[in-house]
């Protein structure tokens, strides 16, 4: 039978428990998930591309069908290269909706075969974002319950005085 392959794209600067929850749930439904880490030239990330990839690899090592890679260029091209038929995105609140709808509509225009599936956030993480984590951690706030253990350690090391 044909493998069901999905891509889960994002900046992941850094990966949070909200992202991990989406990846874990998607990994139960698809045979292979490519977590694709976008270089994101428009933003200056806190963690370099290779740091972000490593943090995700460590945090998802209990999921044998998850692979972590960098990607640049059009998502539809990347998905085709990976033979993925589905894009997984997480939805937190209505505020995510319009933005996500725009991206999904554009991707559909570029490649009608590529479907976008939305996974509703676990309510525990509905207000969690990487930018919030960076901000709180920069003031030495405790984010240990909101990010994987290795990410918490990496944040502590980044903001160590
Ligand atoms: P981008 O920079 O493309 O928005 P992110 O790395 O911030 O990428 O997010 C990647 C995906 O994870 C997006 O679909 C986003 O909506 C989703 N996401 C981020 N945080 C959460 C969360 N706390 N719960 C559920 N989904 C989330």
Automatic annotation (TrEMBL):
<dbReference type="InterPro" id="IPR013166">
    <property type="entry name" value="Citrate_lyase_ligase_C"/>
</dbReference>
<feature type="binding site">
    <location>
        <position position="19"/>
    </location>
    <ligand>
        <name>ATP</name>
    </ligand>
</feature>
<feature type="binding site">
    <location>
        <begin position="90"/>
        <end position="92"/>
    </location>
    <ligand>
        <name>ATP</name>
    </ligand>
</feature>
<feature type="binding site">
    <location>
        <position position="43"/>
    </location>
    <ligand>
        <name>substrate</name>
    </ligand>
</feature>
<feature type="binding site">
    <location>
        <begin position="125"/>
        <end position="131"/>
    </location>
    <ligand>
        <name>ATP</name>
    </ligand>
</feature>
<keyword id="KW-0808">Transferase</keyword>
<dbReference type="InterPro" id="IPR014729">
    <property type="entry name" value="Rossmann-like_a/b/a_fold"/>
</dbReference>
<comment type="function">
    <text>Reversibly transfers an adenylyl group from ATP to 4'-phosphopantetheine, yielding dephospho-CoA (dPCoA) and pyrophosphate.</text>
</comment>
<keyword id="KW-0460">Magnesium</keyword>
<dbReference type="GO" id="GO:0004595">
    <property type="term" value="F:pantetheine-phosphate adenylyltransferase activity"/>
</dbReference>
<feature type="binding site">
    <location>
        <begin position="11"/>
        <end position="12"/>
    </location>
    <ligand>
        <name>ATP</name>
    </ligand>
</feature>
<dbReference type="Pfam" id="PF01467">
    <property type="entry name" value="CTP_transf_like"/>
</dbReference>
<dbReference type="GO" id="GO:0005737">
    <property type="term" value="C:cytoplasm"/>
</dbReference>
<feature type="site" description="Transition state stabilizer">
    <location>
        <position position="19"/>
    </location>
</feature>
<dbReference type="InterPro" id="IPR004821">
    <property type="entry name" value="Cyt_trans-like"/>
</dbReference>
<keyword id="KW-0963">Cytoplasm</keyword>
<dbReference type="GO" id="GO:0008771">
    <property type="term" value="F:[citrate (pro-3S)-lyase] ligase activity"/>
</dbReference>
<comment type="pathway">
    <text>Cofactor biosynthesis; coenzyme A biosynthesis; CoA from (R)-pantothenate: step 4/5.</text>
</comment>
<comment type="subunit">
    <text>Homohexamer.</text>
</comment>
<keyword id="KW-0548">Nucleotidyltransferase</keyword>
<feature type="binding site">
    <location>
        <position position="11"/>
    </location>
    <ligand>
        <name>substrate</name>
    </ligand>
</feature>
<comment type="similarity">
    <text>Belongs to the bacterial CoaD family.</text>
</comment>
<dbReference type="GO" id="GO:0015937">
    <property type="term" value="P:coenzyme A biosynthetic process"/>
</dbReference>
<keyword id="KW-0067">ATP-binding</keyword>
<dbReference type="GO" id="GO:0005524">
    <property type="term" value="F:ATP binding"/>
</dbReference>
<feature type="binding site">
    <location>
        <position position="89"/>
    </location>
    <ligand>
        <name>substrate</name>
    </ligand>
</feature>
<protein>
    <recommendedName>
        <fullName>Phosphopantetheine adenylyltransferase</fullName>
        <ecNumber>2.7.7.3</ecNumber>
    </recommendedName>
</protein>
<feature type="binding site">
    <location>
        <position position="100"/>
    </location>
    <ligand>
        <name>ATP</name>
    </ligand>
</feature>
<dbReference type="InterPro" id="IPR001980">
    <property type="entry name" value="PPAT"/>
</dbReference>
<keyword id="KW-0547">Nucleotide-binding</keyword>
<feature type="binding site">
    <location>
        <position position="75"/>
    </location>
    <ligand>
        <name>substrate</name>
    </ligand>
</feature>
<feature type="domain" description="Citrate lyase ligase C-terminal">
    <location>
        <begin position="14"/>
        <end position="155"/>
    </location>
</feature>
<keyword id="KW-0173">Coenzyme A biosynthesis</keyword>
């Amino acid at each position: 039978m044909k493998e069901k392959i999905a891509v889960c794209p994002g900046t992941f600067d850094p990966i949070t428990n909200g992202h991990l929850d989406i990846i874990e749930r998607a990994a139960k439904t698809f045979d292979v998930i490519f977590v694709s880490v976008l270089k994101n030239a428009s933003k200056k990330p806190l963690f370099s591309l290779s740091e972000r990839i490593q943090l995700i690899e460590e945090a998802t090592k209990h999921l044998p069908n998850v692979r972590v890679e960098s990607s640049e260029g059009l998502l539809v091209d990347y998905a085709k290269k990976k033979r993925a038929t589905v894009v997984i995105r997480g939805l937190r609140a209505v505020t995510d909706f319009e933005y996500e709808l725009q991206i999904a509509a554009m991707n559909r225009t570029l490649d009608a075969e590529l479907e976008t599936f939305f996974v509703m956030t676990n309510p525990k993480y509905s207000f969690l974002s990487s930018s919030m984590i960076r901000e709180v951690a920069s003031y030495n706030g405790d984010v240990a319950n909101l990010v994987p253990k290795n990410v918490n350690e990496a944040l502590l090391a980044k903001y160590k005085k």
